Amino acid sequence: MTNHWIDIKNSDVILIMGSNAAENHPISFRWVTEARVAGAKLISVDPRFTRTSSKADIYAPLRSGTDIAFLGGMLKYILDNGLIHEESVKEYTNASFLVDEGYEFDTVTGLFSGYDATTKKYDRESATTTWRFQTDGDGVILRDKTLANPRCVYQILKAHYSRYDLDTVSAITGTPKDKLQEVYETYVGSSYQSGKAGTIMYAMGWTQHTVGAQNIRAMAMIQLLLGNIGVAGGGVNALRGESNVQGSTDHCLLYHILPGYLQSPEDAYPTLDDYITKWTPTTNEPRSANWWGNYRKYMVSYLKSMYGAAATAANNFAYEWLPKRDKGVPYAWQCMFDAMYRQAAGQELKGFFAWGQNPANSSANANKVRQALAKLDWMVCVNIYPTETAEFWRGPGMDPANVQTEVFQLPCAASIEKEGSITNSGRWAQWRYKAIDPPGEAKPDAEIMNEIFAAVKALYEAEGTGAVFPDPILNVKWDYFDDPDKISDAIAKEINGYFLVDSGDYQAGDLVPNFVSLADDGTTSSGNWLYCDSYTKEEGNLMARRTRSDAATDVIGLNPEWAWCWPLNRRIVYNRASVDLFGQPYDSEHPVITWDGEGWVGDVPDGGWPPLKNPDGIDNPDSRLPYIMEPNGVGRVFGVNKMADGPIPEHYEPLESPLASNPMGHGQRLNPTALLCDSDLDLVAPPADATYPIVCSTYRMVEHWQTGVMTRWTPWLNELQPEMFVEMSEELAAEKGIASGERVRVRSIRGEVQAVAIVTKRFKPFTIMGETVHQVGVPWCFGWYAPNPDNTRVTNGNLLTPNVGDPNTRIPESKAFMVDVVKEA
Amino acid sequence: MAVNGKSFLIDTTKCFACRSCQVACKQWNELAAEDPVPTNRGTYENPPDLSHTQWLLIHFNEAERADGTLAWNFVRNSCRHCIDAPCKQAAQNTDSITIDAETGAVLFQEGTRNESFKEILRACPFDVPRQGPDGQMFKCVMCVDRVHNDLLPACATACPSDAIEFGDRQDMLDAADARLEAIRPDFPDAAVLDRHDVRLLILLGDRESMHRLRAAPAAADAE
What we know:
Chain A is an alpha/beta fold.
């Protein structure tokens, strides 16, 4: 989230789309409700009328996978009517920038300029890419702040989205035209003016598509145009799928990053200098802070944290010891299981840790994942319960005699049985304490890792001089477990970082106060630069703070002394976009920061520089533009070259869809850069296939957690939602002769599940391009093992979903695929 | 004469049926889950009925409004804690059903096992009492053990959106009136049910007929 949970209360209009917040993030509805009581409008856009929709002022249905069409229509509405936050758009975004003359979107082929049909990739990095801006002789970007130049971003958007008229959008999405109009008028009308704010709450309903990242881009563009970024009650707010997904991402759960969103090293950049040169952005824009210019400081401090005294200037701070991935090879979740499945048993991927995970249920095309696990030599499952993953070898359709994978189950401590931090969607790192001891031999995850690492290290030591490349293991700084009572604190301090030599008022061994102190010469360490300031010499563990603000003085609910949030306890990021050129808040009733003539008051500003203009109206050269992480200092309405599939979003159909061609009238049905897998288990229903005519989506529910590993064992929760179901409209049920409560099967080309039919008014047939299209939905929290093992039961929604994904994130398209529903014989 | 004691205000316009209240009730009161596990009957509503271990149940109902929009309404079924409790009047012994002096909670005591379940159930306008295996009757107890110790009832503590408020009766009536006035433009039919007669004040946005307020009548089974 750019903002945070409590801040939702400051919104004037809340759009919940691509998320079912009431059911999947119920605590968010504390703040949604508070906003509603204060008069805010709530809009729910979802294929299915949900518990979120039940509280909405406006509910608009749309066919799964058509969000860009829906939002493209909103962009057209904004641009046609000029309903933008004018100063914010002109001064704080790239809307005025002139785009390369060669850039175009071809409305016949449906492709952006620079597409290579052989590699299925766009040219966005070469010297000849057209996905860039025009510059003057000094390399400074050309712009037209009147927004009239036909090559400026604003005019390019206007032309691009002119095709998204109400008739076209309605024919694609199935949303009635009057509902589209009502949503556009309400959202835009309630939030584009100064003093008004609109927020978006989205989740996997937007990400899990072949155009997932572009769904979010579309909304980010809308928020920039409406001046809804940086302000209280605004922002682009990703509701994370687990309570600590934000924390795990910050600390590099994903393959492409190191802690603090530093890029993970690739073989193409074998030395530290290569790596730093590649990833440190430069800018010719005057008054751009270009904060990522500090890349080297953060990377060197990270290496010092990893390797301690063994990391020296002479050995490039041990950069060479970090693993390097092959450039251009995606190691994402889906790709990993694809490789695992395709290999001859035990060849490339011999072992696998399923740590706090249940991929046999949580992964798209779960049957393929289960088969892939059988290709391993060994698997370690660390969990508080046995899972369908740990038990895969005796699950539905598996013959234990044919599975050679050796499975180890390690019991771990539950959240209340260990101490540490957890970072919520709003970037708040909150410290939790241990309440009780874990049962039996269960241990906290960190202690399990410590034991494994000690064993691995001992193996290398035993091999002595014969060990192959032992340096990365033998030289790791690993001193967090010396005092068993202070393990979590020792790790948290390492993450914050230390001075390694005396520096000003600080001595070697002192914690660094913030990331401004980090150096690129090896004199500081930090396990994650973003978390510098979370545990300091002066104030101790700031994540453990529990002081609530006085609502009378903290009107917008920043609560700066409750826990700690990155970066630097800044509760609303991009907050310099919430003030005018003189530093005065656009919304005086809900100010985030204010320049009082000498400094900023309110939230921690995005840098302490003075406002862009002095009181006399003259530009202040000492000021900096508000988007400090962007090389050009402004928000990207035009994505330039950051996205694999285009600088701006275009509607493409899901891989599996009821339409044979793109209803935008061009030749490109599917995202031309989508990630596709082609093993024998990657079956895909052809477009508009009569065998699988019904659109399907998967979802979660409030009663169960993820794959249900914890909640299906909890009788009080399990009795609320005891078994697999499929929701369908009364009209579809009538066509199929299915009564509510009857047992049915849902089939995709990849698999089938047993389910109870819930026949409901909350799904309605869509009219898509003049034809009736039905949609159904299934949860993915059920499985065969818990609470009563029965390997004749096939009930997991991911047995239906395809291994296909977004080209930027490689997330699977679990939210739009095609099925049929039949009565159980 | 003003009625003292405590009351709940159940604001259904703030309820989104997360059912934290249903679970919190069972947790605090140490009530077993249904055994065997109930099936899905084509609805989210589960367990299927109130029982001696199920004192609070959220009912789900889909209905179309006159303007064509859909309502999915959630309403709580549990003891209303009547001011002048008909169940107490129907009891043969005065100590089998008591009224808590501080809160006004209607409490079933162990002596209910000696009462006629048929009569007690018939007396209840809301089909709430349920009988355990040994004949004792059970229902919501207003968590009087918590309230006597200055805590909110478990359900009110668990509710994330303040759809369950609990406090002095007059304060709850005042809060209900204020809320009714605030939502009147959006919900012209908004009302508080049985406001003079019960301590569980249920505020509805839509008409009462657009909710599934009563459980399936168990009274017939008891005949």
